[in-house]
Amino acid sequence: MNATRDTLRPVREATRTDRLLAALGGLVAAYVSLAVADLVASRVRPEASPVVAVGGAVVDRTPAVLKDWAIRTFGEDDKAVLQLGILLLLALLAVGIGLLALRHRVLGSAAVGAFGVLGALAAVTRPDSESAVDAVPSLVGAAAGALLLYVLIGRLLAPRPGAVTTAGAGAGVEGWAGSGAEVGGGTGSGAGVESESAAGAGAGTRAARADRRSFLLVAATTGLAATGAAALGRAVGSPAEENAAASRAALRLPRPASPAPPVPAGARLAVPGISPFTTPNRDFYRVDTALVVPKVNADRWRLRLHGAGVREELTLTLQDLMARRTVERDITLACVSNEVGGPYVGNARWLGVPLAELLREAGVRPPSEGGPADQLVARSVDGMTIGTPVEDVMDGRDALLAFGMNGEPLPFEHGFPVRMVVPGLFGYVSACKWIESIELTTFDAYDAYWVPRGWAAEAPVKTQSRIDTPRPFGRPAAGTVMVAGVAWAQHRGIRRVEVRVDDGPWQEARLAAEDTRDTWRQWTYPWTATPGRHTLTVRATDGTGATQPERRTKTMPDGAQGWHSVVVTVEGGA
């Protein structure tokens, strides 16, 4: 009787070592699959990478409360944490697939292919998918991983001399099962069988070691090759990204027809630890859902303006925009996910064109003038939609289509080539990055991305203040301690900032000079600190005379509010 090799079943019983190596094989196959997919995505489109595509789908389906928790907990590293979580989950699944392949070689390899299909579906159904080609990275990567797993498991399950197969316990020693006389020349005691069995066992052990060495060699070789290929792909980058970077490098910003007024000399306070009046681009906060920063070629970029009340649909290039009247303004932006005292606020000098002028030229009128649209829906190249009140955009504030930030073209992370900037509104209802479309509609007719996820459709910035120094749990020395920070209430301005030590009376802080009502203001308070533990609290009053309420609220549905405080321990003294 001969053992037949069935690709669905193992040809012999697996050992514990086989199972450990099979789990390792599943991990290596998954790793190679992702590395190959990443390499292919670098030539197709980075957003088509399966981890990015699946991660984007996860982000879109994650409850808003969980997203807000992730931002609070991990800050701007939330995307990296999400991708790490996806990779850990895939690793666990890969171990299971490796063990499945040990029992069912073809089914295990097919499971790798199934995950490739899921990645391909995620890629082609993303809002920013450009064509069915986005499925290619996942499919090619899955094919590579499935083939590798099939080969690796084959190395483990190769028939070995003296091994017992699942085709029958006697199959592995068939031909030795006769009488002692048949195998031992008439000795009759079975000594020949014992001799042959020992020889077979030794040969089987040697074969097992050779199989495992072969397994490890194939796994290590393919893993290193995949690592090198993926690293090369990332280093070289995609042609689209290279062209986008070249277009940004070649861009020359126009001189503004209406430059920003010089920042008043007293608006920048030289206090160690205070936030600078102008936030450098590298330090400006970034909160969005893009796992891969879109790299848009400025030469190919187009902006479509259409919808209710638009007299004639417009399509504009970046050169068309820069040929218009440009303005330069200092404007502070804030994220609705910013908790009391949080870091997601920054001030920059923006260069762009007034959005209201463009809308009026297209025939758009605000609702107060009888216009049919009360919502402007901005769409990003990555599929994000942001809804902004038309009335706010056209009420005279400096709402911009910006292409410059702090004297240079927008960084890719902050929306190159063009983004919206609307002072006085939280970013999720105004600050669309990588914008490619503006549609005029109504709030009743359309819910932008964040609204079905529990956030308010309209969200003016709330008055906030923050203590930058001393830091929480700091240990300043007794004596005069400069308490300092920033306060903001864009489009209303800051009238007053007050500081309280422990449960004492409120003391008015010194405000830096106001640049405009659309920027934050720095403030300072010289505190005569005495030894011991103290709580410092700050509150601000905006330009309308409204003071921050004491009670803290969560960020959902329309932004946090409440007083910011820090606890410090003062050391020293007489």
Report the portion of residues in β strands. Answer: 15-25%
Structural class: alpha+beta
Walk across the major sheet and give the strand order. 2-1-10-5-6
Number of strands: 18
Specify Rg, calculated over alpha carbons.
33 Å
Mean pLDDT: 88
* Helix-strand pattern: HHHHHHHHHEEHEEHEEHEEEEEEEEEEEE
Q: Please summarize the sheet with the most strands.
A: 5 strands, mixed
Helix content: 25-40%
- Runs with pLDDT <50, length 5+? 1-9, 163-196
Number of helices: 12
Q: Roughly how many Å apart are the termini? A: 98 Å
Outline, from the CA principal axes?
globular
Structural commentary:
Residues 1-9 and 163-196 have low confidence and may be disordered. The strands form four sheets. Strands 2-1-10-5-6 form a five-stranded mixed sheet. Strands 3, 4, 7, 8 and 9 form a five-stranded antiparallel sheet that branches. Strands 11-12-16-15 form a four-stranded antiparallel sheet, with no helix packed on it. It is 34% helix and 20% strand. By secondary structure, it is α+β, with helices and mostly antiparallel strands. It is built from twelve helices and 18 strands. The N and C termini lie far apart (98 Å).
